[in-house]
Amino acid sequence: MPDDRRSGRLGVGTIGAGRVGAVLAAALAGAGHALTGISAVSDASRERAAAMLPDVPVLPIPEVIERSELVLLAVPGDELPSLVEGLAAAGAWRPGQLVVHTVARYGVDVLEPARRAGAIPLAIHPAMSFTGTSIDLGRLAGTWFAVTAPGPVLPIAQALAVEMGGEPFVVAEPDRAAYAEAVDTAVSFSTAIVDQSAGILEGIGVARAGSVLASLVRSAVENALARHDAGPVVDGGGTTIDGADDVRPPGGDR
User: Fold this and answer.
1) Model confidence over 192-201: pLDDT tens digits?
2) What is the maximum span of the chain, computed from C-alpha positions, in angstroms?
3) Where does residue 252 rank: exposed (0-12), middle (13-18), buried (19+ CB within 10 A)?
4) Span 234-247, mean pLDDT?
């Protein structure tokens, strides 16, 4: 697609129509990229793909990859290494193809089988809890995206995060496990605390306990976050960053 490349428009294929994959594919489509296909196995994932991406064909994984210049791997972390290796063994990856995964705990080393075939490895993780619905598209605006990539192609990963509405920050390869631990801790503890508090209120007959707690929880969380939000963001290389206004989309300006 030479014309698409000149305009910065990429053919994007998505492996996995879970809550993350469908939403990020829709976000990339909103940024002007062409969605070439999506893989969806379960009934729930097919329904999600139909709701979020009604005009995108559901295809087998090898066909999605064959059609795409950028392949978005939105699969569970436990499945990612074997998937990448298996596709490499089948000769699916192509030189120059962008391969992006969304797993918090992995950097780009997990994509080494694809890189050996000439693909360009990128790790992009939005620090957000997903519902898998159109609500998430609005929530992406201003969400921070952890990006890891080889130095020469790091601007591509940053630009893709910006195009999806986010703010990129760099996490070094050795720090991805610690980053994932921070994300898991925030999600699990906040969910558990809300469930526990709501359960207590429901136990004494309070209706709509979630709504009752909403302002309290949000303000408490915002206050706690503010205590850790002084100064610029520091990326994984020790460089301060204030955002990515100077990052250009892959392939040039649009």
Assistant:
1) 999 999 999 9
2) 65
3) exposed
4) 39
Tokens of 250: 């892959």
> Using CA of residue 183, residue 115, residue 37, residue 78, what is the dihedral sign?
negative
- Provide the phi-psi class of 180: left if phi over 0, else alpha when psi is between -120 and 50, else beta: alpha
d(CA 242, CA 93): 35
Three-state DSSP state, 36: strand
What is the rounded distance in angstroms from the CA atom of residue 75 to the CA atom of residue 102?
8
**Strands of the 167-170 sheet, one edge to the other:** 34-39, 11-15, 70-73, 98-101, 120-126, 144-148, 167-170
Whole-number pLDDT of residue 25: 97
Burial class (CB in 10 A: 0-12, 13-18, 19+), 80: buried
For residue 204 the two structure tokens come to 């004494």
Task: Enumerate residues 6+ apart whose C-beta is below 8 A from 95.
Answer: 117, 118, 119
How many CB atoms sit inside 10 A of residue 86's CB?
A: 12
R_g of the chain computed on alpha carbons: 19
Euclidean distance between the first and the last CA atom of the chain, given in angstroms as a whole number? 16
Q: What is the pLDDT of residue 141?
A: 93
**CA 195 to chain CA centroid, nearest Å:** 26
- What is the distance between the alpha carbons of residues 9 and 29, in angstroms, rounded to a whole number? 10
Prediction pTM value = 0.82
Any idea how long the chain is?
A: 254
